[in-house]
Amino acid sequence: MMLQSHSRFLLQTLLTRAQNLDKAVELDYQWIEFDDVRYHVQVTMKNPSILLLSVSLPNPPPEAMSFDGLPLGAIEAIKTAYGTGFQILDPPRDGFSLTLKLNFSKLRPDEAYRNSLLTKLASIREVVMGAPLKIILRHLASRTVAPELDRLVAIMHRPNETFFLVPQADKVTVAFPMRFKDSVDTILATSFLKQFVEARRAASLSSAPSCSWSPTAPHELEGAPKETLSANAGFVTFVIMPRHVEGEKLDRTVWNLSTFHAYVSYHVKCSEGFMHTRMRRRVESMIQALDQAKPLEKTRSMNNKSFKRLVSFVTNVFRHSFTILSFVSSKSLSFLFAPSSQGLNDVNSK
């Protein structure tokens, strides 16, 4: 399952606002999505047709390509994607990397056009964070290399984390250091990535980018800062060819590479949740088996108690019988073996 490029909550908010422009409603929504991307949507009662969308991105590490807190080429990518329907506020709102101003009253009344434009706006994350990657892959489509790029390019995709690209005229090598905080996630991710590489060898995926995994950094990352090469789940490397970025494939490839770590994390958490579900079901079945065994155990316990009482009763009976028998036997023996005169006297006395 691949992650969607647009924010579902942002898209729902935009569509709802576009369909209710005649109602003066004040909106002030803030939320955070995966990889620490924060959104803020605001609409005031004074200007119900004006919507302000602010986006906050994680702070880029020193090795990442960025300009004023935004990835390289982000402003140009926004202008290309959205045209003149939006205004970029400079400076942005406090605490945010980017703020866009949308005037619903200036949009064309065509519903299909409006929905398409708002869907693009809901994909602001893809446009902004995928801007430097799209520049490199566009040059790959034309089999060239951007002259201003270094041999090794670092692009931020998570807080304080980057992945690396080695751009060439005929291919682009993409390397991901895979890091996970939880030890269980690390084990599951390592197993998942190994199977991911094995699945690539299937005949049905022969046209997909070649993929490899290694526990140590590949030779393409020579010269990268040492602190960026610590990966407890190994390194995943993709080789992107010009055929993978032709036409409409470009945007899909950019999004899949930009969110690859989130894609792996999602499936790792799903696998962990599935295992927990199976374990719970197993425990529940064992508890049911124990519950079914309780009445039988209770009956056995009652039977054991009854048997013990019976044994105790019989023992007491035999004990008293033995006492009486001993007394009678002693008297009988004394009567039989006593002298005849004494025995007769005893009898006469009784």
Automatic annotation (TrEMBL):
Cell location: Cell projection; Cytoplasm, Cytoskeleton
User: What GO biological process terms does the UniProt entry carry, in alphabetical order?
Assistant: actin filament polymerization; Arp2/3 complex-mediated actin nucleation
User: What's the chief localization of this chain?
Assistant: other
Q: Which UniProt keywords apply?
A: Actin-binding, Cell projection, Cytoplasm, Cytoskeleton
Task: Return one GO MF term.
Answer: actin binding
Give the UniProt entry's GO cellular component terms. Arp2/3 protein complex; cell projection
The source's domain of life comes to Eukaryota
Q: How does it assemble?
A: Component of the Arp2/3 complex.
Name the job this protein performs: Functions as actin-binding component of the Arp2/3 complex which is involved in regulation of actin polymerization and together with an activating nucleation-promoting factor (NPF) mediates the formation of branched actin networks. Seems to contact the mother actin filament. Arp2/3 complex plays a critical role in the control of cell morphogenesis via the modulation of cell polarity development.
Its family remark reads: Belongs to the ARPC2 family.
According to UniProt, the name of this protein is Arp2/3 complex 34 kDa subunit
Tell me the organism.
Answer: Brassica campestris (Field mustard)
Top-level taxonomy: Eukaryota, Viridiplantae, Streptophyta, Embryophyta, Tracheophyta
